[in-house]
Amino acid sequence: MIFDGHNDALSRLWCQGGDPVANFAADEGHINQPAARAGGFGGGFFALYSPQQRKRFEFAGFKGATMPLATPLDQAPALQSVMAQIGIAQRLEAAGALTLCTDAGQIEAVMDAGGMAALLHLEGAECIDPELLVLDALHALGLRSLGPVWSRPTIWGDGVPFDAGRDGDTGPGLTADGRRLVARCAELGMVVDTSHLTMKGFWDIAEMGLPLVATHSNAYALAPVTRNLTASQLRAIGQTGGMAGLNFATVFLSAEGWTTGRATIDDCLRQLDAMIEGAGEDHVGLGSDFDGAPLPDGMRSCADMPALVAAMRKHGFGDALVDKITRGNWLTFLHRTLR
Ligand code: ZN
User: Fold this and answer.
1) Paired sense of beta strands 143-147 and 191-192, if any
2) Which of 79, 182, 253, 330 is spaced 20 to 30 A from 267 at the CA atom?
């Protein structure tokens, strides 16, 4: 069973509309019940994400493109979409399709029983007020992981615009409010995620003494885009006992992937090698971006996870390493981090 660092299934279901329980039971999108059963997908971080507009994302023909930062999003619409997505997660749980988990022991128990474990993650904290009261409310609803920003400017700090040929040093780091948000998350025993955050924001979080986590970001050396991690970032992730999750998004896997929108499972292996070399084999996992990004050739949905695992073995990864990458490292990290 695989445990993964990032997916957008809840925002996919929200954008889709209709009955989320029926839609999750149908073989649609990258994560759904039949695909998860077929592929041994045992769960992961389920993102709560507020898109600019409530409409389905079209992956066909998607390619990398230099884009300006998205326009800021007000708190009210962000909170509306986040609450709706929590509602979807709760309906899926009531229907027996997944189990909302708040600690690592619970995740292991759900996966061992063949279920789907969901750890709620907030991807961009626009829905939280400067007094951080909404953070406590979301924590009470099961939120255990938070990335202060998506690729947008916020009161907490800026995300990176999508671009190639330059690293994540694209703008300012955390604001004073952003530091308070991160400190409160740490106090609550939550994961703080740096994916989408600027390089300066990444080092601001390092300075605060937190383990550095990039739930869905790859090695910049192989795919020079703003969303990926430089060698010094990967090293810091390992040194602080953090985690980097391999993002399957074609546009972040290789330089060619950015221009063509196509990538292969071999590109995933090359990325894993680079990430392991940079952060160490105890600090790399998966961060698929299922339902949020176009996938490599040979991977249609989470049903095709066995193809990646088989490729890892053929590439020379032994059983212990495959287990670490596909679930063990995330679970060890969550055992240490979540309270
Ligand atoms: Zn993302």
Assistant:
1) parallel
2) 330
pLDDT, residue 270, reads 98
- Give the Å distance between the CA of 121 and the centre of ligand 1: 11
- The number of domains in the chain is 1
Residue 277: CB partners within 8 Å, gap ≥ 6? none
- How many whole angstroms from 227 Cα to the centroid of ligand 1? 9
Q: How far apart are CA 244 and CA 217, in angstroms?
A: 7
The rounded distance, in Å, linking the Cα atoms of 60 and 259 is 14
Q: Residue 239 belongs to a domain with what CATH number?
A: 3.20.20.140
Task: Say how many Å lie between the CA of residue 87 and the centre of ligand 1.
Answer: 21
Its domain, for residue 150, covers: 2-337
Long-range contacts of 208-211 (CB under 8 A, 24+ apart): 208/179, 208/182, 208/183, 210/182, 210/186, 210/240, 211/240, 211/241, 211/242, 211/243, 211/333, 211/336, 211/337
CA of 139 to the centre of ligand 1 (A): 20
Q: Please answer whether residues 95 and 21 qualify as being in contact, where contact means their C-beta atoms are separated by less than 8 angstroms.
A: yes
Token output for 102? 């708040």
Alpha carbon of 216 to ligand 1 centroid (Å): 7
pLDDT tens digits along 160-179? 999 999 999 999 999 999 99
Q: What is the pLDDT of residues 77-115, one digit of tens each?
A: 999 999 999 999 999 999 999 999 999 999 999 999 999
Per-residue model confidence (pLDDT) at position 60: 82
- The Å distance, Cα 69 to ligand 1 centre, comes to 14
CA–centroid distance, 229 to ligand 1, in Å, is 14
